[in-house]
Amino acid sequence: MRRSMECIRTTVIGGSPLLQAGMIAALEQDARIKLIDRLQDAQDAITHARQQACDVLILNADIPHLEAGPIMKGLADAVAMTKVLIFTANESYAEIVETFRLGVHGYGIHTALWPEDVCSAIVAVADRGMWLCPQTARRLLDAAFRWASVGPPRWGTDVPLSQRESEVLSLAAAGAREDDIADTLCLSRNTVKTYLRRIREKLQTDTRAAAVSLALERGLLPARWPDEPPNAVLASNCS
Q: What is the pLDDT of residues 152-204, one digit of tens each?
């Protein structure tokens, strides 16, 4: 726990320039918080956190468990414990659980927060090591009640994906780009784009990130990345 008179050294990572600007404006109103930097690339977060002795890293993420995973691994052996606080629009309970499994310290959903909530989250994470926004807590409680009454959801057959579509989406969930997916599965890039479009249509989502999150929530994909990439997909029928 930090000493009470110290400012909480904070770095904001990722998100659109507009999102960052709004968040930084909120932080500058709180004397308890000292913004030491803003970064666009999460890959720079580990080196930065160690060099700047950062207390709380704020990561704005679309698919938190993918983006936070490398950061948590990189900070694991750091002498000073830097807390990682996630802000996202992703409210899939599967994504929330998988993100906390990595060891992150806080999770907030943008659409349910006011500027002062961001400051409260930073203070809570720095002082107590854990924070959930009310919307995150509700999502987890709803899932717990549902599982307790009817068991884990078995949605895999509601929106059937072909084997190839599952392979493409598994690689996309692991962070692979279209070119990487094409090389791995011995497909053209245009074919990969077609598969991704069909997947979005089946899942009724507008973006790849939303398709991945929904597929994780519905049990169409195992929520085990980034530690366990879908190796079975990598051994496909290329010859």
A: 544 444 556 777 888 888 888 877 888 888 888 888 888 899 999 888 888 88
Do 178 and 115 share a structural domain? Answer: no
pLDDT score for 153: 47
Q: Is 49 in contact with 86 (CB distance < 8 Å)?
A: no
Residue 158 lies in a domain: no
Q: Is residue 152 part of a domain?
A: no
Length of the chain: 239
Q: Are residues 136 and 222 in the same domain?
A: no
83 and 19 co-located in one domain: yes
pLDDT digits (tens, 9 = 90+) for 11-36: 999 888 899 999 999 999 999 999 99
This prediction's pTM: 0.64
Nearest to 55 by CA among 108, 124, 133, 103: 124
Burial class (CB within 10 angstroms; exposed 0-12, middle 13-18, buried 19+) of 1? exposed
Residue 77: phi, psi to the nearest 5? Answer: -105, 15
Residue ranges making up the domain that contains 77 = 8-145
| Co-location of 123 and 223 in the same domain | no
